[in-house]
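Late entry, evening session. Most of the bench is empty. Finally got around to the prediction I had been postponing all week. Sequence below, unchanged from the version circulated by S.P.
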Amino acid sequence: MTGREHPLRVGGLARALEIVGERWTLLIVREAMTGVSRFDDFHARLGVSRKSLSARLGLLVEHGLMTKTPYQQRPIRCDYRLTRKGIALQPAIAALTAWGDAHAFRRGIATATSPPALRAGVGGDGSARCTDPAAVEGDPAAATGDP
């Protein structure tokens, strides 16, 4: 049995992680959600190597999360835009952003704030989401005040 066939690697989460589970992939999608669409702009904003960026954009196009459209012929340069399938990741990215803001930081180091469009609070379907962990019954962090 290979790793991909293992029973714990089946299901929606496992299939999603096969596509977007690498760090740079989600950061590229996040940047695309803020309007970034050109290779050089992704590269400048993220600081990812050109080789990794090219591979990740190719993966996103291959899986239908982004489209690739030439905007210049010599040399060929392309716009990368999210498809509906890619835009559907917004609630997941918002939830990961909120979790990271609340729980994954180094004490004493200020962190940049995330773009408001990516913050949790309203789901992609317009429904309200609970963003205050203190409001969740039984949350140990809420009881102690620790993040």
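Two things to note before I forget:
The longest strand covers residues 66-72.
The beta strands are 66-72, 77-82.
Will write this up properly tomorrow.
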